[in-house]
Design a protein that fits this description.
mainly beta, 58% strand
């Protein structure tokens, strides 16, 4: 059977459209939603302890090297760590389907307010790696709850802030 030249071009055009549609529709479906919440586990001797989370990423178990770190969120979020046991969303994003073992949090800024006076603090560390095992699945959201212990130390040179993160077991995708 011989195809007419115009008919062959139409078939090729339909195939190209199907491939483009596939490339536009499938990748988002191969991701799972991730929500990262943060709550302070300690009370501090300060009116407020404001910390800005600049980036949150997760480490895949089946990939090695720097490409194993995948971004959950790079949107800056400011939280008040003086509020004990109050959970706040600090990151929303999506990750490729798979198993992850660690979350990394980058703190970009910190300020304390003590007796109504705002003071910039010296962070002991600004990059935190928190072990937490979780799985992202098709069409489901995984919630990762990070707990942070805060220690504010006033010295003659200023205010030092020590943060210590742990993770609650990630909730399974629903």
């Amino acid at each position: 059977m011989k195809l007419e030249p115009m008919r062959g071009k139409q078939i090729v055009a339909v195939i190209v459209l199907l491939v483009v549609a596939f490339l536009l529709v499938v990748p988002p479906l191969l991701n799972g939603g991730v929500k990262v919440t943060l709550s302070s586990t300690t009370s501090v001797h300060a009116d407020h302890v404001y910390v800005t989370i600049g980036e949150i990423s997760a480490h895949r178990t089946d990939i090695s090297g720097s490409s194993a770190w995948q971004s959950i969120s790079n949107k800056s979020t400011r939280v008040d760590l003086s509020l004990s046991n109050v959970s706040e969303t600090v990151g929303l994003g999506s990750l490729a389907l798979g198993h992850y073992e660690t979350v990394r949090v980058k703190v970009t800024n910190a300020t304390v307010i003590i007796n109504g006076t705002s003071q910039k603090v010296q962070l002991e560390s600004s990059l935190f790696t928190i072990p937490v095992s979780f799985l992202t699945r098709f069409g489901a959201d995984t919630v990762i709850t990070l707990r942070v212990s805060t220690e504010v130390q006033q010295t003659t040179g200023g205010v030092n802030l020590k943060l210590s993160f742990t993770a609650a077991p990630a909730s399974p995708p629903s």
